[in-house]
Amino acid sequence: MPPFSYYLFFGYFLLVHRICDGLGKIVTQLPPTLNNNVDVAYMCESIMKLKHGSSIVLILTLIMPCLPVFGKDKPDIMLAKIYERGIDVTQYWVSEKLDGVRARWDGTQLISRGGLIFATPDWFTQGFPPNPLDGELWTERSQYENVSSIVRKHQPHKGWRSVRLMVFDLPAHGGMFDERVQAMKQIVLQTKSPYLGVIEQWRVGNENELKQRLQSVIDRGGEGLMLHRNTARYANGRSHDLLKLKPFSDAEATVIGYRPGKGKYLGHVGSLKVQTDDGRQFFIGTGLSDEERRQPPPLNSRITFRFQGRTKNGIPRFPVFLHIHDEKPQ
After folding, report:
1. pLDDT: is 26 or 102 the higher one?
2. What CATH superfamily is the domain 78-245?
3. Residue 295 three-state SS
Protein backbone atom coordinates (compact mmCIF):
# COMPACT_ATOMS: atom_id res chain seq x y z
CA MET A 1 0.00 0.00 0.00
CA PRO A 2 1.36 3.51 -0.86
CA PRO A 3 2.42 5.70 2.09
CA PHE A 4 0.03 8.26 3.62
CA SER A 5 2.01 11.12 2.05
CA TYR A 6 1.05 9.72 -1.37
CA TYR A 7 -2.64 10.22 -0.60
CA LEU A 8 -2.02 13.76 0.72
CA PHE A 9 -0.13 14.59 -2.45
CA PHE A 10 -2.89 13.16 -4.63
CA GLY A 11 -5.63 14.91 -2.64
CA TYR A 12 -3.91 18.29 -2.86
CA PHE A 13 -3.65 18.25 -6.65
CA LEU A 14 -7.15 16.83 -7.01
CA LEU A 15 -8.40 19.83 -5.00
CA VAL A 16 -6.40 22.23 -7.17
CA HIS A 17 -7.79 20.60 -10.31
CA ARG A 18 -11.39 20.89 -9.04
CA ILE A 19 -10.92 24.57 -8.04
CA CYS A 20 -9.46 25.41 -11.44
CA ASP A 21 -12.31 23.59 -13.14
CA GLY A 22 -14.85 25.59 -11.14
CA LEU A 23 -13.10 28.91 -11.79
CA GLY A 24 -12.93 28.09 -15.48
CA LYS A 25 -16.70 27.60 -15.62
CA ILE A 26 -17.28 30.91 -13.78
CA VAL A 27 -15.00 32.79 -16.15
CA THR A 28 -16.81 31.46 -19.23
CA GLN A 29 -20.05 32.94 -17.87
CA LEU A 30 -18.64 36.47 -17.40
CA PRO A 31 -20.09 39.32 -19.53
CA PRO A 32 -18.34 39.89 -22.89
CA THR A 33 -17.02 43.26 -21.70
CA LEU A 34 -15.04 41.57 -18.92
CA ASN A 35 -13.82 38.78 -21.17
CA ASN A 36 -12.11 41.41 -23.35
CA ASN A 37 -10.30 42.86 -20.33
CA VAL A 38 -6.53 42.15 -20.44
CA ASP A 39 -6.29 41.26 -16.75
CA VAL A 40 -9.26 38.91 -16.97
CA ALA A 41 -7.79 37.25 -20.08
CA TYR A 42 -4.47 36.77 -18.27
CA MET A 43 -6.31 35.28 -15.28
CA CYS A 44 -8.18 32.85 -17.57
CA GLU A 45 -4.94 31.75 -19.22
CA SER A 46 -3.29 31.19 -15.82
CA ILE A 47 -6.24 29.14 -14.58
CA MET A 48 -6.13 26.92 -17.68
CA LYS A 49 -2.35 26.37 -17.33
CA LEU A 50 -2.76 25.46 -13.67
CA LYS A 51 -5.61 23.08 -14.53
CA HIS A 52 -3.58 21.37 -17.26
CA GLY A 53 -0.55 21.12 -14.97
CA SER A 54 -2.58 19.60 -12.15
CA SER A 55 -4.09 17.12 -14.64
CA ILE A 56 -0.62 15.91 -15.61
CA VAL A 57 0.40 15.59 -11.95
CA LEU A 58 -2.77 13.62 -11.18
CA ILE A 59 -2.10 11.19 -14.03
CA LEU A 60 1.50 10.67 -12.92
CA THR A 61 0.39 10.21 -9.32
CA LEU A 62 -2.13 7.56 -10.34
CA ILE A 63 0.41 5.49 -12.28
CA MET A 64 3.25 5.84 -9.75
CA PRO A 65 2.21 2.81 -7.66
CA CYS A 66 2.21 0.69 -10.81
CA LEU A 67 5.82 1.50 -11.66
CA PRO A 68 8.71 -0.69 -10.47
CA VAL A 69 11.09 0.79 -7.92
CA PHE A 70 14.80 0.51 -8.66
CA GLY A 71 17.64 0.47 -6.18
CA LYS A 72 20.47 2.96 -6.31
CA ASP A 73 22.81 0.38 -7.82
CA LYS A 74 22.76 -3.21 -8.97
CA PRO A 75 24.20 -5.35 -6.20
CA ASP A 76 27.69 -6.74 -6.80
CA ILE A 77 27.15 -10.49 -6.73
CA MET A 78 29.19 -13.64 -7.12
CA LEU A 79 28.32 -15.62 -10.25
CA ALA A 80 28.95 -19.25 -11.15
CA LYS A 81 30.88 -20.83 -13.96
CA ILE A 82 29.99 -24.19 -15.51
CA TYR A 83 31.23 -27.33 -13.77
CA GLU A 84 33.74 -29.36 -15.78
CA ARG A 85 34.82 -32.94 -15.18
CA GLY A 86 38.16 -33.47 -13.53
CA ILE A 87 37.70 -30.86 -10.80
CA ASP A 88 38.64 -31.98 -7.29
CA VAL A 89 35.16 -32.05 -5.81
CA THR A 90 36.49 -32.70 -2.30
CA GLN A 91 37.46 -29.01 -2.16
CA TYR A 92 33.86 -27.87 -2.59
CA TRP A 93 30.69 -27.59 -0.58
CA VAL A 94 27.72 -28.86 -2.60
CA SER A 95 24.12 -27.67 -2.44
CA GLU A 96 20.93 -27.92 -4.48
CA LYS A 97 20.45 -25.22 -7.12
CA LEU A 98 17.00 -23.87 -6.34
CA ASP A 99 14.78 -22.77 -9.24
CA GLY A 100 13.72 -19.46 -7.71
CA VAL A 101 14.47 -15.75 -8.09
CA ARG A 102 17.84 -14.49 -6.87
CA ALA A 103 17.74 -11.71 -4.29
CA ARG A 104 20.07 -9.68 -2.08
CA TRP A 105 18.98 -8.58 1.38
CA ASP A 106 21.04 -5.42 2.03
CA GLY A 107 20.00 -5.06 5.65
CA THR A 108 16.90 -2.97 4.92
CA GLN A 109 15.33 -4.21 1.69
CA LEU A 110 15.34 -7.03 -0.86
CA ILE A 111 16.96 -6.20 -4.20
CA SER A 112 16.98 -8.23 -7.40
CA ARG A 113 20.09 -9.04 -9.39
CA GLY A 114 19.14 -6.23 -11.78
CA GLY A 115 18.65 -3.61 -9.04
CA LEU A 116 14.85 -3.86 -8.69
CA ILE A 117 13.57 -3.37 -5.15
CA PHE A 118 11.07 -6.14 -4.39
CA ALA A 119 7.75 -4.89 -2.97
CA THR A 120 7.82 -7.12 0.09
CA PRO A 121 5.19 -6.84 2.83
CA ASP A 122 6.57 -5.50 6.12
CA TRP A 123 5.76 -8.77 7.87
CA PHE A 124 7.87 -10.74 5.38
CA THR A 125 11.17 -9.07 6.30
CA GLN A 126 10.30 -8.40 9.94
CA GLY A 127 13.21 -9.56 12.08
CA PHE A 128 15.61 -10.03 9.15
CA PRO A 129 19.20 -9.39 10.28
CA PRO A 130 21.24 -6.26 9.45
CA ASN A 131 23.74 -8.53 7.70
CA PRO A 132 23.66 -8.57 3.88
CA LEU A 133 22.41 -11.93 2.60
CA ASP A 134 22.54 -13.61 -0.79
CA GLY A 135 19.66 -15.97 -1.39
CA GLU A 136 16.92 -17.34 -3.58
CA LEU A 137 13.25 -16.37 -3.28
CA TRP A 138 11.71 -19.82 -3.47
CA THR A 139 8.54 -21.78 -2.78
CA GLU A 140 9.14 -25.38 -3.88
CA ARG A 141 10.66 -27.37 -6.73
CA SER A 142 9.35 -26.84 -10.28
CA GLN A 143 7.50 -23.67 -9.23
CA TYR A 144 9.69 -21.00 -10.84
CA GLU A 145 6.83 -19.41 -12.78
CA ASN A 146 4.73 -19.21 -9.64
CA VAL A 147 7.37 -17.61 -7.41
CA SER A 148 8.38 -15.22 -10.20
CA SER A 149 4.78 -14.00 -10.61
CA ILE A 150 4.53 -13.45 -6.84
CA VAL A 151 7.71 -11.45 -6.32
CA ARG A 152 7.52 -9.37 -9.54
CA LYS A 153 4.32 -7.57 -8.53
CA HIS A 154 4.82 -3.87 -7.76
CA GLN A 155 2.70 -3.85 -4.60
CA PRO A 156 3.00 -6.00 -1.44
CA HIS A 157 0.41 -8.80 -1.30
CA LYS A 158 -0.42 -11.91 0.70
CA GLY A 159 1.07 -14.23 -1.95
CA TRP A 160 4.43 -13.67 -0.26
CA ARG A 161 3.28 -15.97 2.56
CA SER A 162 4.26 -18.98 0.43
CA VAL A 163 7.76 -17.58 -0.28
CA ARG A 164 11.00 -17.91 1.69
CA LEU A 165 14.39 -16.32 1.19
CA MET A 166 16.75 -19.31 1.11
CA VAL A 167 20.21 -18.02 2.04
CA PHE A 168 23.31 -19.42 0.34
CA ASP A 169 26.00 -16.80 1.05
CA LEU A 170 27.06 -13.79 3.15
CA PRO A 171 28.60 -11.16 0.84
CA ALA A 172 29.89 -8.91 3.63
CA HIS A 173 31.47 -11.74 5.65
CA GLY A 174 35.23 -11.65 5.28
CA GLY A 175 35.89 -15.32 6.01
CA MET A 176 36.26 -18.40 3.87
CA PHE A 177 33.17 -20.28 2.73
CA ASP A 178 33.81 -22.89 5.45
CA GLU A 179 33.21 -20.11 7.98
CA ARG A 180 30.31 -18.58 6.09
CA VAL A 181 28.43 -21.89 6.07
CA GLN A 182 28.44 -21.94 9.87
CA ALA A 183 27.64 -18.22 10.09
CA MET A 184 24.60 -18.61 7.80
CA LYS A 185 23.19 -21.36 10.00
CA GLN A 186 23.62 -19.21 13.10
CA ILE A 187 22.02 -16.12 11.53
CA VAL A 188 18.94 -18.02 10.35
CA LEU A 189 18.66 -19.84 13.67
CA GLN A 190 18.79 -16.59 15.65
CA THR A 191 16.40 -14.74 13.34
CA LYS A 192 13.59 -17.28 13.84
CA SER A 193 11.69 -15.92 10.85
CA PRO A 194 9.35 -18.32 9.03
CA TYR A 195 10.32 -16.56 5.80
CA LEU A 196 14.09 -17.04 6.13
CA GLY A 197 15.87 -20.34 5.56
CA VAL A 198 19.33 -21.59 4.69
CA ILE A 199 20.18 -23.91 1.81
CA GLU A 200 21.69 -27.17 3.04
CA GLN A 201 25.37 -27.64 2.23
CA TRP A 202 27.14 -31.01 2.14
CA ARG A 203 30.47 -32.53 1.08
CA VAL A 204 31.16 -35.37 -1.37
CA GLY A 205 34.16 -37.68 -1.56
CA ASN A 206 34.44 -38.12 -5.35
CA GLU A 207 32.81 -37.43 -8.71
CA ASN A 208 30.63 -40.54 -8.60
CA GLU A 209 29.13 -39.38 -5.31
CA LEU A 210 28.54 -35.98 -6.88
CA LYS A 211 26.67 -37.62 -9.77
CA GLN A 212 24.55 -39.59 -7.31
CA ARG A 213 23.67 -36.37 -5.48
CA LEU A 214 22.76 -34.74 -8.79
CA GLN A 215 20.53 -37.62 -9.82
CA SER A 216 18.82 -37.58 -6.43
CA VAL A 217 18.02 -33.88 -6.81
CA ILE A 218 16.75 -34.35 -10.37
CA ASP A 219 14.58 -37.30 -9.36
CA ARG A 220 12.88 -35.04 -6.79
CA GLY A 221 12.17 -32.36 -9.41
CA GLY A 222 15.21 -30.19 -8.68
CA GLU A 223 17.22 -28.17 -11.18
CA GLY A 224 20.83 -29.09 -10.42
CA LEU A 225 23.73 -28.50 -8.02
CA MET A 226 25.97 -25.64 -6.94
CA LEU A 227 29.59 -26.19 -5.88
CA HIS A 228 31.34 -23.61 -3.69
CA ARG A 229 35.07 -23.86 -2.94
CA ASN A 230 35.54 -24.24 0.79
CA THR A 231 38.48 -21.81 1.04
CA ALA A 232 36.97 -19.12 -1.23
CA ARG A 233 36.20 -15.63 0.03
CA TYR A 234 33.26 -13.73 -1.42
CA ALA A 235 34.22 -12.04 -4.70
CA ASN A 236 32.11 -10.23 -7.28
CA GLY A 237 31.77 -11.62 -10.80
CA ARG A 238 32.23 -15.11 -12.23
CA SER A 239 34.78 -17.40 -10.68
CA HIS A 240 35.81 -21.04 -10.55
CA ASP A 241 35.21 -20.75 -6.81
CA LEU A 242 31.50 -21.10 -7.61
CA LEU A 243 30.29 -23.71 -10.11
CA LYS A 244 26.92 -24.91 -11.34
CA LEU A 245 26.09 -28.39 -12.48
CA LYS A 246 22.86 -29.03 -14.33
CA PRO A 247 21.80 -32.01 -16.47
CA PHE A 248 20.94 -31.62 -20.11
CA SER A 249 18.35 -33.68 -21.93
CA ASP A 250 17.96 -34.12 -25.69
CA ALA A 251 14.63 -34.51 -27.46
CA GLU A 252 13.01 -34.25 -30.88
CA ALA A 253 10.29 -31.99 -32.25
CA THR A 254 8.61 -31.09 -35.52
CA VAL A 255 8.98 -27.64 -37.10
CA ILE A 256 5.50 -26.15 -37.57
CA GLY A 257 6.30 -22.46 -38.13
CA TYR A 258 8.71 -19.56 -37.82
CA ARG A 259 8.99 -16.31 -35.90
CA PRO A 260 10.62 -13.46 -37.86
CA GLY A 261 13.95 -12.11 -36.63
CA LYS A 262 14.71 -8.62 -35.35
CA GLY A 263 17.76 -6.38 -35.37
CA LYS A 264 20.71 -8.11 -37.05
CA TYR A 265 18.37 -10.99 -38.00
CA LEU A 266 15.75 -8.79 -39.65
CA GLY A 267 14.57 -10.54 -42.80
CA HIS A 268 15.67 -13.93 -41.48
CA VAL A 269 14.21 -16.45 -39.03
CA GLY A 270 14.34 -15.41 -35.39
CA SER A 271 13.15 -18.71 -33.95
CA LEU A 272 11.50 -21.98 -34.91
CA LYS A 273 8.01 -22.84 -33.74
CA VAL A 274 8.05 -26.53 -32.90
CA GLN A 275 5.75 -29.20 -31.54
CA THR A 276 6.79 -32.23 -29.54
CA ASP A 277 5.22 -35.67 -29.98
CA ASP A 278 2.99 -35.06 -26.96
CA GLY A 279 1.54 -31.90 -28.58
CA ARG A 280 3.40 -29.18 -26.66
CA GLN A 281 4.32 -26.13 -28.73
CA PHE A 282 7.07 -23.57 -28.10
CA PHE A 283 9.80 -21.58 -29.84
CA ILE A 284 13.52 -22.34 -30.20
CA GLY A 285 15.87 -19.53 -31.20
CA THR A 286 19.07 -20.29 -29.35
CA GLY A 287 21.53 -22.49 -31.24
CA LEU A 288 20.57 -21.43 -34.76
CA SER A 289 23.55 -20.35 -36.87
CA ASP A 290 23.38 -17.37 -39.25
CA GLU A 291 23.12 -19.80 -42.18
CA GLU A 292 20.29 -21.73 -40.49
CA ARG A 293 18.43 -18.46 -39.94
CA ARG A 294 18.72 -17.68 -43.66
CA GLN A 295 17.76 -21.23 -44.67
CA PRO A 296 15.93 -22.72 -41.68
CA PRO A 297 14.87 -26.35 -41.31
CA PRO A 298 11.81 -26.81 -43.55
CA LEU A 299 8.29 -27.13 -42.23
CA ASN A 300 7.42 -30.63 -40.97
CA SER A 301 11.11 -31.50 -40.62
CA ARG A 302 12.28 -33.17 -37.41
CA ILE A 303 14.91 -31.46 -35.27
CA THR A 304 16.91 -32.42 -32.20
CA PHE A 305 17.18 -29.92 -29.35
CA ARG A 306 18.70 -29.79 -25.87
CA PHE A 307 16.95 -28.49 -22.77
CA GLN A 308 17.28 -28.20 -18.98
CA GLY A 309 14.26 -29.62 -17.21
CA ARG A 310 10.63 -28.70 -17.78
CA THR A 311 8.15 -26.11 -16.57
CA LYS A 312 5.13 -27.12 -14.52
CA ASN A 313 3.22 -27.25 -17.83
CA GLY A 314 5.71 -29.70 -19.31
CA ILE A 315 7.38 -27.19 -21.66
CA PRO A 316 11.15 -27.78 -22.08
CA ARG A 317 13.16 -25.04 -20.32
CA PHE A 318 15.99 -23.22 -22.11
CA PRO A 319 15.71 -25.19 -25.39
CA VAL A 320 18.72 -25.06 -27.72
CA PHE A 321 18.63 -26.16 -31.37
CA LEU A 322 21.22 -28.84 -32.17
CA HIS A 323 20.55 -30.11 -35.69
CA ILE A 324 17.98 -31.55 -38.07
CA HIS A 325 17.21 -35.08 -36.89
CA ASP A 326 19.63 -37.66 -38.34
CA GLU A 327 21.62 -34.80 -39.84
CA LYS A 328 24.76 -34.60 -37.77
CA PRO A 329 26.87 -31.42 -37.83
CA GLN A 330 29.90 -31.58 -40.11
Report:
1. 102
2. DNA ligase/mRNA capping enzyme (3.30.470.30)
3. coil
Q: How many CA atoms lie within 13 A of 265 on its CB side?
A: 20
Q: Is 19 a residue whose pLDDT tops 80?
A: no
Domain boundaries, the chain: 4-66, 78-245, 249-324
Task: Write down the pTM of the prediction.
Answer: 0.62
Distance between CA atoms of residues 229 and 247, nearest Å: 21
Q: Cα separation of 30 and 55, whole Å?
A: 24
The set of residues, in sequence order, having a beta carbon less than 8 Å from that of 2 and lying 6+ positions away, is 64, 65
The reply to whether domains 78-245 and 249-324 share a CATH topology is no
Q: How far is CA 63 from CA 6, 10, 257, 292, in A?
A: 12, 11, 39, 44
User: Domain spanning 249-324: which CATH class is it, in words?
Assistant: mainly beta
Hey, how many other C-beta atoms are within 10 angstroms of the C-beta on 180?
A: 25
Give 324's pLDDT tier (boundaries 50, 70, 90): confident
pLDDT score, position 52: 65
Catalytic machinery residues: 97
DSSP letter for each residue of 16-60 = HHHHHHHHHHHHHTS-HHHHT-HHHHHHHHHHHHHHHHHHHHHHH
238-258 as b/e, with b when 16 or more CB fall inside 10 Å? eeebbbebbeeeeeebbbeeb
